[in-house]
Write a structure and sequence with these properties.
single chain, mainly alpha, elongated, 82 residues
Length: 82
Amino acid sequence: MTGVVQFQSWRLKLRELFFGHSDAARRFLYGIIFFDLLTLLFVISTSFLPRKPWIGMVDVAIGLVLAAEFAVHLAAHRAPAR
């Protein structure tokens, strides 16, 4: 039962970060926007370079971070199935 309570507490904290109006929520969302802009710049700039193994590794790392961001945002939502 404590696992469920901890998960709900974690979801409430995430909900506050994603949908709140506090300074912490604002900084969190600006951090996400900054990361997304860096990702966009990386994808655009490396599309003109010859394919190297490190570019593929960074692409995979970015994909994993974006998937985690999506999963956390989904967990924070009140009705994730909508």
